[in-house]
Amino acid sequence: MSKVSVIGLDGATFRVVDYLVAQGRLPGFSRIIEEGSRAILKSTRPPLTPAAWASFYTGTNPGKHGVVDFFRRLPGTYTLTPVSAQAVRGHTVWSIASDYGKRVCVYNVPLTYPAIPVNGIMISGMDAPGLDARAYYPQSCRDEILAKFPDFDI
After folding, report:
1. What pTM was estimated for this model as a whole?
2. Other Cβ atoms closer than 10 A to 62
3. By three-state DSSP, how is residue 108 classified?
4. Could you read off the pLDDT of 85-94 as tens digits, one per residue?
5. Rounded CA separation 137/154 (Å)
């Protein structure tokens, strides 16, 4: 059975990564690049973190998944409210993999709060308001991480 890992570096470019690899400052990435594959990813329009990540993990564009920025206006007002995973329309790659019995580990991906049940673990990304129980699935994952790394922060 093959395994797939996706490492996403928000805002990074191969121009920077290659430079640091050449200087020997990213030995882990050097090995990943040598033994794996890589590709340049065209961003979304607008090229903003929430729109891009939601597009990546749903396979749809912002017009379909409904996320453009970190905030959205409440209907009929100018009041801004934070966008969360609940605002993303469409099926995520980890939900589809879970439905097919594949184990997944989702860690620190934007717009994954609150964490959802998956066949594996999910630790919400930077949109999580803190270390509350809704930022992790399963709950035992949170307890285990905090027992081993008491200063852990998302």
Report:
1. 0.87
2. 19
3. strand
4. 999 999 999 9
5. 14
